[in-house]
Amino acid sequence: VPEENVAEFKEYQELIINILSKIFPSLMAIGTGFAVWLNVVLAKPLFRMKGLAYPDFAPMDRWHAPEWLVWGVIASGFALFFAPGNIKFVAVNILIVMLTVYFFHGLSILLFFLRKYHIPSWIRIGIYVFVMIQQILMAILVVAGLFDQWVDFRKIHKKADS
User: Which of 53, 66, 102, 153 is deepest in the core (most CB within 10 A)?
Assistant: First the structure.
């Protein structure tokens, strides 16, 4: 960093550290959840290769967040705008965790349609990498996961009811 920009750089550094320290609890929860999810996903083929018993989990393309979880998004969103000081700290962390849950809900919708249309696995991997690189696609998956509660893009709730 050039000498004349050191003071400005330090201001940005302090701002980034301040923001990251406030959202650290949600980042910790998300990191732990992601590690568990990744272990479950990667363990299945490894167990099959070794001929070991593996628990029968529900298909990942049918997973959805519980309906009551949307109230966590609504409450933390309103608290983020209208609540004072420390409540905002809690609200932003809850909102980040909830939106991550809805990202995985949107990811299960994407997986459902990729399987439905028999997309080859090498294209699927490319799509997943593209989603991770393009943040707008991540946001679209979050919104899709959130609105799937009411719209039911996969039409799986109607089948479950009948």
Answer: 102
Each residue's pLDDT tens digit, 76-101: 999 998 888 889 999 999 999 999 99
User: Could you report how far apart the first and last alpha carbons of the chain are, in Å?
Assistant: 64
Q: How far apart are CA 60 and CA 107, in angstroms?
A: 9
